[in-house]
Design goal:
- The chain is of the alpha/beta class.
- It is 29% helix and 22% strand.
- The chain contains 16 helices and 28 strands.
- The strands form 7 sheets. Strands 14, 17, 18, 19, 20, 21, 22 and 23 form an 8-stranded mixed beta sheet that branches. Strands 12-26-27-28-24-25-13 form a 7-stranded mixed beta sheet. Strands 4-5-6-7 form a 4-stranded antiparallel beta sheet.
- Helix 7 crosses helix 8.
- The longest helix is centred in the N-terminal third of the chain and has 16 residues.
- The protein is elongated, with a radius of gyration of 31 Å.
């Protein structure tokens, strides 16, 4: 039964239409069960967030369950650090699994199934090299040729299969292959490998296994054994689906479940990946960035990892809104980063606390303001949400403002501070820059101090505050109370729109490794660190996970490196779309 969430008003995705059709036809007894099956060999990226939203979202929408299953069939690459990070990321995105499983939970059943296949004459041990096996596969236009070991006696295959798991077998010398059809038009059916030898201890099973099942042999069987009804995956698995279905059918025969084979089985459905402009999302390449110290780690705010976006200040709701906006299709496309940033901007506008911060400061002295006087002004935390309340802001004679908000010789259309011009200070007074002796400069000609006067009747909330002026409203912080902070500004990590294709082209042309190619297209200006910024004391108290808007600048979040003595903030996204302008 579909959960009544109010989502009926929107059009259904093609995946939802398939699910509803299966439910209407009574497939799998009307059950809905999905799974999210990450390999624990790296941190999740935003592409995984789309799969998570689909797997968990379908289960929730139709009253089913979604399990988390780690595809831990390759102990060479797997680490408990990755398992913990994956669980954390899923929860942060707002989803909960019904059960946690591991592909290794099924190693014994998969082994017994493989033994049954050998006894049925549907699998055999091959001792040819990987290169020879690949050559014998043929091409898409020509059939493959049979292995000379394809018709080995069953007893010999059983003996060699046991030897593969003995720990005495050299990796690469023996493999178990399914016997299907070396002339099949789908290359994956040409006697695929289903077991290989690794001789590496497993984090969960220890030394019990030295021969490990391949992905295509593991995935469908794990789905079947778990009771998955809908196996949702990305488009590169379209060609794998017939093999997935065949192995599931064989498994059902092995289990003696020959009735209603088509009505009671997991069904694989493929949807498009999430591809973003100026973004590289291969875990292998992301790992290289980390290992080569081209970024500070998996959670570097320039990385497309979920933990990187979290550290940068993205909200889980904004990522979900972006995924909903781009939708699910049966063809791949490159989505604009500007679309993601737009979703983030829209979401943070409703939840971010407004604070004052000056990133490139210059001092303002209000010459007619009483020396030593300090006022406690009131600032609204979030005009979009009255429940967020207010906080106090200190105002005094000396203030910091943005250097770009002052121009000694101003153009006619310059509506900020200049000799003879008035501006309003946010939540405070109207000030006017002196026409004569408006500023002081250092030996290099840089303005160090601006001199102004204020209108004491113009404070926000007072009757005189309604006076109209041509100048803009500027943000500021009190020099006496300001806290010095470090602010990190981020640009795109890559110089090219499609780094994946560009990386492949460079490697092919130059015959170089991935790291050498990456260094040619990585953006050297992707991180700018400003160390001479000032923030109001209220902002200095903020911690990672609290969403902020630096007024007139953008959205920010305190970084994990931040301390009360040395606040550090990451820029999440600007108030306006800068991507379109950059990419013209």
């Amino acid at each position: 039964m579909k959960e009544n969430t109010g989502e009926e008003r929107r059009s259904l995705s093609f995946v939802e239409q398939i699910v509803e059709k299966d439910l209407a036809e009574g497939k799998n007894g009307g059950r809905i069960q999905t799974r999210f099956p990450p390999e624990p060999n790296g941190y999740l990226h935003i592409g995984h967030a789309k799969a998570i939203a689909m797997d968990f979202g379908i289960a929730k929408r139709y009253g089913g369950i979604c399990n988390l299953r780690f595809d831990d069939t390759n102990p060479v690459k797997e680490d408990t650090e990755y398992i913990e990070s994956i669980e954390h990321d899923i929860k942060w995105l707002g989803f909960e699994w019904a059960n946690v499983y591991y592909a290794s939970d099924y190693f014994q059943e998969l082994w017994d199934f493989a033994v049954w296949l050998i006894k049925q004459g549907r699998a055999y041990v091959d001792e040819q090299s990987a290169e020879v096996i690949a050559q014998q596969k043929g091409t898409t236009t020509s059939p493959g040729t049979n292995s000379p070991f394809r018709d080995r006696p069953v007893e010999e295959n059983l003996r060699l299969f046991e030897f593969m798991n003995s720990g005495q077998c050299e990796p690469g010398t023996l493999v178990l292959r399914a016997k299907i059809d070396m002339a099949h038009p789908n290359m994956l059916f040409r006697d695929p490998l289903i077991y290989r030898v690794l001789n590496i201890p497993h984090v969960k099973t220890g030394d019990k296994w030295n021969a490990y099942p391949m992905y295509d042999f593991t995935h469908g069987q794990s789905d079947y054994l778990e009771g998955v009804t809908h196996s949702l995956c990305t488009l590169e698995f379209v060609e794998h689906r017939p093999l997935y279905d065949l192995f599931v059918t064989w498994m059902k025969e092995y289990k003696g479940e020959t009735d209603n084979i088509e009505d009671n089985r997991p069904r694989q459905t493929e949807f498009n990946k999430l591809n973003l402009s100026y973004t590289l999302m291969s875990k292998r390449n992301l790992l290289a960035l980390v290992n080569e110290h081209l970024v500070s780690g998996w959670d570097d705010p320039r990385m497309p990892t979920i933990c990187g976006f979290r550290r940068r200040g993205y909200s889980p709701e904004s990522i979900q809104k972006f995924i909903d906006k781009i939708g699910y299709t049966t063809y791949d496309a490159l989505n604009e980063m500007a679309l993601l940033e737009s979703a983030v901007r829209d979401d943070l506008n409703a939840r971010a606390i407004r604070v004052s911060a000056v990133l490139n400061p210059v001092k303002v002295v209000i010459t007619n303001y009483p020396e030593g006087q300090i006022e406690q002004l009131t600032a609204v935390n979030n005009p979009e949400n009255e429940a967020d309340g207010e906080h106090c802001v200190e105002f005094g004679r000396e203030l910091w403002i943005e250097r770009d908000d002052f121009m000694e010789v101003a153009e006619k259309k310059f509506m900020r501070l200049a000799p003879g011009k008035e501006v309003r200070l946010k939540n405070a007074y109207i000030i006017k820059c002196n026409e004569e002796n408006c500023c002081e400069k250092d030996a290099d000609g840089n303005v160090t101090t601006i001199y102004c006067t204020y209108d004491p009747d113009s404070r926000s909330g007072m009757p005189g505050s309604n006076r109209k002026i041509k100048g803009k409203t500027l943000h500021w912080v009190s020099c006496q109370h300001a806290v010095k902070a470090e602010v990190r500004l981020y640009e795109r990590l890559w110089k090219v729109e499609n780094p994946r294709d560009e990386l492949a082209a460079i490697r092919e042309q130059q015959q170089c490794d991935a790291v050498t190619a990456m260094k040619q297209i990585i953006n050297p200006d992707s991180l700018s660190t400003l160390s001479n910024c000032y923030i109001e004391p209220f902002a200095a108290q903020m911690k990672p996970g609290q969403y902020l808007q630096f007024q007139r600048i953008g959205y920010f979040m305190a970084d994990a490196d931040s301390t009360p003595e040395h606040p550090v903030f990451n820029k999440t996204v600007g108030l306006k779309d800068t991507w379109a302008k950059q990419n013209r």
